[in-house]
């Protein structure tokens, strides 16, 4: 008998390992001997406990890997060593691995085992699991303890039990005690009711009893659904930062008894959390994210609150990125956002479209060509010769003015040589034909230009990154929000061209002011969140520019896609409960209704009563609409001034030449008059007599 005890001690000193579905000892021979020489393997209390554990494993643990954890009692006490050994030898339907409580690390096991994992813990006092185990969200935990009923009750009251959702405790202390009558005490099975009050307390609840190898209440689910009545008003802290329309503050007037205004949080994510709080019976405490000297980004401040357990939820339109998955947990996707561009548009006509807009350039070219070419056939039919125009090019200018005046009814020529006074039938036919042609052209132009500049049309906007590159737009973005990091690594040619010259701004208001003020010099496109930019364009943000016909246009292209979700602190044990509710809200259309309600509230509070893009009513022309006419007039005046300057210089040169000629003539006359005067003291020589 002493040899068997020594052999058993040696066998239990051999380390365990797992292979497939069964536990194997490195020495197979020792394994067989140990099965034959266990001191207590035939004791009925051990068989009863083994049958209970196998029944629980068969019902609830058969589909997942099992981690078996034990404390010092089941390692050093020979009797409890036998208990553990007998139970392990009976496992043949699941894969498992054995750990001592001091060597077990839930973080390492969670990383190494991506699949589902359940836990069976053998211990003296269940409170030992507080430092090494907890935050079991999806796993089922079965604790077999030999502690007293008082210890079990205190454990259920402690914070450690509240970190385990699916918890089952078997009180095996009395059953494993020696009994002279060989009677095995019943094994009671407990779980806990969580959040029985607003403080988050939990109390024990007896489920059933294992008696004579069966449950006294076999219909009872040993892992029942928890939190049926919600959280009983428990308070959850939300860390938030304003990011309209997802999260923002709205001033709501209280009752007349207070006569005060208080800031209230609102938005898509806030409304979703408030509905969730109403259904699950908990309260929300929303506060601004904690300021930090090391974290400048607002999203990083929220993540910091969750990591430091200062908040349970984080909401501000947080993007689900790989870097954040290691720090926090996320809910299902609430909204899909994307980075896109916002550019400035104008309802006013461009400078030249107010005049040339009704006709295509090809029409203008043909009209001018027709009017100029008409000079030659009319001149030929009237004079029977075109040499007059060739010999005197100045007449061509007169002919152009005549054509312009005749075909626009602007000038009337009554000269004798006017074509209207001609007696040639061919000339009259030409003039009449062109006159009818001119009436049609001028009538269509007049009608078209009235409709063109009085009835608004859809303005031309930029909707893709290719259009931005083609039209020479420059990109402007905020120096916060992480957009530089999101777009720093890219191989796209268009993206490289757009990001080659990026201007950074401090805030959104300064950005819009800069885009508006520099619209005549450079074209800027602001890169940001599509949801935020849509809110900005819908809101009355450009009210101070109401006298200018400008608007903010958000491109339809989704340049960079992102998913938005509510962030939880890491290992948030109620994550699945909230996730299921969010999924049901999406499937039922509740989330879509929340989004539509927020958009309607934004439009109502912005003061926008009708669409700013297309108005069904007539509108008056403004200076922006007719500025092209003044530009044309200014261009004509400029040309006239230049012509006047040239003529003035030419006239000055002509007058100077005339003056020089007059001076030369006067000098010649003066010299001639002096040669005819007889000088004094000069003897006149006689003329030579004429010869005959």
From TrEMBL:
Binding residues annotated for L-glutamate, in chain numbering: 324
Feature type site, description Crucial to convey clamshell closure to channel opening: 462
Any Pfam family the entry gives: Lig_chan-Glu_bd
Topology with respect to the bilayer: Multi-pass membrane protein
UniProt-listed InterPro entries: Glu/Gly-bd, Insect_Ionotropic_Sensory_Rcpt, Iono_Glu_rcpt_met, Iontro_rcpt_C
All copies of domain Ionotropic glutamate receptor L-glutamate and glycine-binding, residue ranges: 236-333
Gene Ontology process terms (BP): detection of stimulus involved in sensory perception
Any one cellular-component term (Gene Ontology): plasma membrane
Domain Ionotropic glutamate receptor C-terminal: 360-637
Signal peptide: 1-20
Subcellular location field: Cell membrane
Record keywords: Cell membrane, Glycoprotein, Ion channel, Ion transport, Ligand-gated ion channel, Membrane, Receptor, Signal, Transmembrane, Transmembrane helix, Transport
Transmembrane segments: 361-380, 396-413, 433-455, 550-568, 629-649
Molecular function as annotated in GO: ligand-gated monoatomic ion channel activity; signaling receptor activity
Family that this chain belongs to: Belongs to the glutamate-gated ion channel (TC 1.A.10.1) family.
Xref: PANTHER family: IONOTROPIC RECEPTOR 20A-RELATED (PTHR42643), IONOTROPIC RECEPTOR 60A (PTHR42643:SF24)
Name this polypeptide is given: Ionotropic receptor 21a
Organism: Sipha flava (yellow sugarcane aphid)
Gene for this chain: LOC112690026
């Amino acid at each position: 008998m002493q040899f068997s005890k020594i052999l058993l001690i040696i066998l239990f000193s051999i380390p365990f390992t797992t292979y497939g579905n069964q536990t194997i000892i490195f020495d197979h021979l020792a394994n067989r001997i140990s099965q034959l020489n266990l001191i207590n393997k035939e004791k009925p209390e051990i068989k009863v406990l083994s049958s209970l554990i196998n029944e629980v494993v068969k019902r609830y643990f058969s589909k997942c890997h099992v981690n078996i954890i034990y404390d010092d009692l089941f390692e050093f006490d020979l009797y409890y060593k036998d208990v553990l050994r007998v139970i392990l030898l009976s496992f043949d339907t699941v894969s498992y691995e054995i750990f001592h409580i001091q060597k077990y690390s839930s973080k390492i096991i969670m990383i190494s085992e991506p699949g589902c994992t359940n836990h069976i813990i053998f211990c003296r006092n269940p409170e030992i699991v507080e430092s090494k185990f907890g935050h079991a969200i999806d796993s089922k935990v079965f604790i077999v303890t030999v502690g007293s009923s008082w210890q079990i009750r205190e454990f259920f009251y402690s914070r450690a039990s509240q970190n385990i959702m699916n918890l089952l405790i078997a009180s095996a202390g009395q059953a494993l005690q020696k009994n002279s009558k060989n009677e095995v005490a019943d094994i009671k099975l407990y779980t806990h009711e969580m959040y029985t009050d607003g403080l988050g307390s939990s109390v024990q609840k007896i489920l059933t009893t294992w008696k004579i190898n069966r449950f006294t209440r076999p219909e009872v689910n040993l892992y029942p659904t928890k939190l049926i009545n919600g959280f009983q008003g428990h308070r959850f802290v939300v860390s938030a930062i304003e990011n309209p329309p997802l999260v923002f503050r709205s001033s709501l007037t209280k009752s007349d008894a207070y006569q005060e205004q208080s800031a209230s949080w609102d938005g898509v994510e806030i409304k979703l959390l408030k509905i969730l709080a109403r259904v699950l019976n908990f309260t929300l405490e929303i506060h601004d994210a904690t300021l930090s000297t090391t974290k400048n980004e607002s999203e990083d401040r929220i993540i910091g609150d969750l990591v430091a357990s200062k908040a349970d939820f984080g909401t501000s339109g947080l993007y689900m990125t790989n870097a954040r998955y290691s720090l926090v947990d996320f809910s299902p996707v609430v909204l899909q956002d994307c980075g896109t561009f916002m550019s400035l548009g104008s309802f006013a006509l461009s400078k030249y479209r107010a005049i040339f807009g009704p006709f295509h350039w090809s029409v203008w070219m043909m009209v001018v060509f027709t009017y100029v070419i008409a000079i030659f056939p009319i001149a030929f039919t009237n004079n029977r010769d075109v040499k007059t125009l060739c010999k005197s090019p100045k007449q061509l200018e007169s002919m152009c003015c005549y054509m312009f005046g005749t075909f626009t009814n602007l000038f009337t020529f009554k000269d004798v040589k006017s074509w209207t006074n001609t007696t040639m039938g061919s000339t009259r036919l030409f003039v009449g034909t062109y006159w009818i042609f001119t009436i049609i052209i001028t009538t269509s132009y007049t009608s078209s230009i009235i409709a063109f500049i009085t009835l608004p049309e859809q303005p031309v906007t930029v909707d893709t990154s290719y259009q931005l590159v083609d039209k020479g737009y420059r990109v402007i973005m905020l120096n916060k929000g992480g957009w530089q990091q999101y777009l720093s690594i890219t191989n796209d040619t268009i993206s490289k061209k757009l990001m080659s010259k990026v201007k950074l701004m401090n805030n959104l208001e300064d950005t819009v002011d800069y885009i508006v003020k520099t619209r005549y010099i450079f074209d800027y496109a602001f890169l940001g969140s599509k949801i935020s930019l849509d809110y900005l364009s819908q809101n009355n943000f450009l009210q101070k520019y109401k006298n200018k016909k400008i608007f903010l246009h958000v491109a339809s292209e989704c340049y960079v896609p992102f998913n938005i979700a509510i962030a939880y602190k890491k290992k948030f044990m109620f994550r699945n409960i909230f996730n299921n509710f969010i999924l049901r809200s999406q499937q039922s259309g509740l989330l879509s209704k929340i989004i539509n309600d927020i958009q309607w509230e934004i439009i109502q509070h912005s003061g926008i009563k009708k669409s700013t893009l297309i108005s069904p009513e007539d509108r008056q022309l403004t200076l922006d609409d007719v500025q092209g006419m003044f530009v044309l007039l200014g261009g004509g005046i400029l040309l006239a001034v230049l012509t006047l300057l040239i003529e003035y210089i030419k006239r000055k040169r002509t007058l100077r030449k005339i003056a020089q000629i007059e001076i030369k003539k006067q000098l010649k006359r003066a010299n001639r008059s002096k040669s005819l005067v007889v000088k004094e003291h000069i003897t006149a020589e006689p003329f030579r007599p004429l010869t005959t």
